[in-house]
C-alpha cells in the first residue's frame, strides 16, 4: 500500500499498519478535518485527522519507536468527533478531551480488534494511550502528536516550508524514551512556531469567528433535536447534511463577518511548550538555558 505524506514523503505500508489504516473506523478520519470548522471559511485548510494520525505514526517510526508505539500513534485519534474539537466548545469542556473520554469505546471496534489480535497486539495496552511517552508527553514537553500537528498545521497555512521541517526533524533525539532536541536553536525555533500556532491560528480571528458561529448553530440544532450528540460520532459531512435540513449553513458562513460575533465567548485550552534540550549529555528545559 503506497502512501504520500505532505511532510514525510512517499512510504509503503504493509502488515498491521496497512490493515489498521484500511479499517472503517480509521477511514472515517478522512472525513474529519484536523482544524475543525475553519475549512468552512478557508477551504485551503483541509487536512484531516487521517493525515495527522498517519503522520504521528511515521514520526514515531522515524525516531526509532517500536511497532507497538507506531500502532499507538496511528490509532490515537480514532475517537475524534465531527469537526474535531467543536463538541468541546459546544459542551464547554475546557480540557478539550471529549474524544479521549470515548477512546476505549471506539478502540473496542470489532474490525479494529480483529486486526490487533491477528498481529498479537493486546487491546488493553492501548486503553491508556497516554502511557506511550513518544506519542503523548505532558505539556510543556515535546511529543510526536504535538510535533506533527504543529508542523502539519503550520505547513498547511503556509507558515513554514518543507526545508524548515526537515531541518527541525534532524534535531530530534530520544533520551529516556522521550523526545528532546539536540540544540537550543531547534528549541527556540519550535517554541516560537508553537506560540504562533496557538495565538495566530488556533486563537486567530477567522478560527474564533467560525467556531463561535458553529457553536451557536449546533446548540440551536441540539435544542430543537435536529441533531443529537451521537451525530458527532460520525463525521463532518454527515453532521453538515443534518444541519442543512434546517439551516442554510453555507449562507450563514458566507455572512460571518456581518454577524457581530463576540470573540470573548470562545475559550480554548491553554497551551505552551518548553522543549527539553540535550546539553553536554544533560537534558535541560529551554527556559533553563535561555
Q: How are the elements arranged and paired?
A:
Layout lengths: L1 E4 L3 E4 L2 H7 L2 H4 L21 H14 L4 H9 L10 H5 L7 H4 L1 H5 L2 H9 L4 H5 L16 H13 L5 H8 L2 E4 L2 E4 L2 H19 L2 H19 L12 H8 L5 H6 L21 E4 L2 E4 H4 L1
Antiparallel strand pairs: 1-2, 3-4, 5-6
Helix pairs in contact: 1-4, 3-4, 3-10
Brief synopsis:
With 290 residues, this protein is mostly helical.
Protein model, in words:
The chain has 290 residues and is mostly helical. 48% of the residues lie in helices and 8% in strands. It contains 16 helices and six strands. It has helices at residues 15-21, 24-27, 49-62, 67-75, 86-90, 98-101, 103-107, 110-118, 123-127, 144-156, 162-169, 184-202, 205-223, 236-243, 249-254, 286-289, and strands at 2-5, 9-12, 172-175, 178-181, 276-279, 282-285. α1 (15-21) runs parallel beside α4, α3 runs antiparallel to α4 (67-75) and α3 (49-62) packs across α10. The model has no long low-confidence stretch (mean pLDDT 94). One of its GO terms (biological process) is dGTP catabolic process.
Amino acid at each position: 500500500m503506497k502512501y504520500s505524506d505532505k511532510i514525510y514523503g512517499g512510504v509503503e505500508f504493509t502488515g498491521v499498519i496497512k490493515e489498521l489504516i484500511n479499517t472503517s473506523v480509521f477511514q472515517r478520519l478522512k472525513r474529519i478535518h484536523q482544524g475543525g470548522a475553519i475549512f468552512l471559511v478557508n477551504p485551503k485548510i483541509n487536512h484531516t485527522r487521517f493525515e495527522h494520525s498517519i503522520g504521528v505514526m511515521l514520526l514515531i517510526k522515524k525516531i526509532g519507536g517500536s511497532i507497538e508505539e507506531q500502532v499507538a500513534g496511528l490509532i490515537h485519534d480514532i475517537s475524534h468527533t465531527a469537526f474535531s474539537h467543536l463538541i468541546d466548545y459546544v459542551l464547554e469542556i475546557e480540557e478539550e478531551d471529549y474524544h479521549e473520554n470515548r477512546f476505549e469505546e471506539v478502540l473496542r471496534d470489532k474490525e479494529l480488534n480483529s486486526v490487533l489480535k491477528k498481529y498479537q497486539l493486546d487491546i488493553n495496552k492501548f486503553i491508556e494511550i497516554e502511557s506511550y511517552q513518544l506519542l503523548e508527553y505532558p505539556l510543556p514537553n515535546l511529543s510526536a502528536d504535538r510535533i506533527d500537528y504543529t508542523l502539519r498545521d503550520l505547513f498547511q497555512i503556509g507558515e513554514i516550508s518543507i526545508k524548515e521541517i526537515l531541518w527541525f526533524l534532524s534535531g530530534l533525539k530520544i533520551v529516556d524514551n522521550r523526545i528532546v532536541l539536540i540544540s537550543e536553536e531547534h528549541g527556540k525555533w519550535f517554541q516560537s512556531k508553537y506560540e504562533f500556532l496557538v495565538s495566530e491560528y488556533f486563537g486567530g480571528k477567522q478560527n474564533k469567528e467560525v467556531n463561535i458561529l458553529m457553536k451557536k448553530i449546533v446548540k440551536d440544532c441540539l435544542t430543537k433535536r435536529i441533531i443529537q450528540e451521537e451525530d458527532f460520532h460520525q463525521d463532518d459531512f454527515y453532521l453538515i447534511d443534518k444541519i442543512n435540513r434546517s439551516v442554510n449553513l453555507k449562507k450563514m458562513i458566507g455572512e460571518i463577518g456581518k454577524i457581530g460575533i463576540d470573540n470573548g465567548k470562545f475559550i480554548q485550552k491553554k497551551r505552551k511548550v518548553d522543549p527539553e534540550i540535550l546539553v553536554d549529555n544533560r537534558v535541560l528545559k529551554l527556559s533553563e538555558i535561555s
